[in-house]
Amino acid sequence: RSDVACYLILVSSLFDGIDGKVARWLNRESEFGAYFDSISDFISFGLVPAGIFFYSCVGLPFLSVSIVCWIYISCCAFRLIRFHHLQKFGCDKEQLFFKGLPTTASAVIFVSINLWVASSRDGGFVQATLLLLSSSLMVSNLRFYNPKSLSISFFSCGFLALLLNLSAIAAISSAVLVVGALGCIDFVVVD
Fold first, then answer.
1. Which of 4, 14, 138, 163 could form a disulfide with 79 if both were Cys (CB 3.0 to 4.6 A apart)?
2. Residue-level pLDDT at 187
3. Are 136 and 92 in contact (CB under 8 A)?
């Protein structure tokens, strides 16, 4: 089931956010750990989202789905290699910004949208478009703000998460009301 895999990617994104902090806190940073983190990011945020897309897009042509998966996986690998290179050679010491969309953000965006559109008729097209867009953003030279550079308290993070969840619930409720109202109008017009 792809929804379970999507939720597991969301959980792995939380662990990805704290693994480096834990290593620094325990004074256990190493080059091996950096490589291991990159390969786990590649699997969790590159291969697994591509696999979810591949197995959930039954209605699209096999060759198109395969090409989209290959592009996404290749861009994810390039993004991680570039990040590791910039870290190793000190080109990116400030860490206020990332060069290109981080793989974690790309995967989280994909699975969040996937949970909403996977069962819809045009879900495969939406997923393919999203994967291609995020692929191009990962290898771009655009600067994306690094949330790890912020010093936010645990309470502030919880409050922000609560606000985001409440606004998502409000948006979904509004959409349900609009769709329901349109369904009633359509029902009245048909009769």
1. 138
2. 44
3. no
Question: 134 and 106 in contact (C-beta within 8 Å)?
Answer: yes
Half-sphere exposure of 181 (CA within 13 A, CB side): 6
Residue 70: what residue type?
W
The stretches in the chain having pLDDT less than 50 are 185-191
Using an 8 Å Cβ cutoff, are 68 and 132 in contact?
A: yes
Q: Encode 119-156: b = buried (16+ Cβ within 10 Å), e = exposed.
A: eeeebbeebbebbeebbebbbeeeeeeeeeeeeeeeee
Instruction: For residue 100, give the nearest of 114, 130, 115, 80 by alpha carbon.
Output: 80
Judge contact between 137 and 73, C-beta under 8 A.
no
Q: Would you say 15 and 90 are in contact if contact means Cβ atoms under 8 Å apart?
A: no
| pLDDT value, residue 27 | 86
* 23 and 63 Cβ atoms separated by less than 8 Å: no
- Alpha-carbon distance of 141 to 130, in angstroms, equals 19
User: Which H/E stretch holds residue 97?
Assistant: strand 97-99
**Contact, 53 vs 115, CB < 8 A?**
no
Ramachandran class of 145: left when φ > 0, alpha when ψ lies in -120 to 50, beta otherwise:
beta
CB 56 within 8 A of CB 114: yes
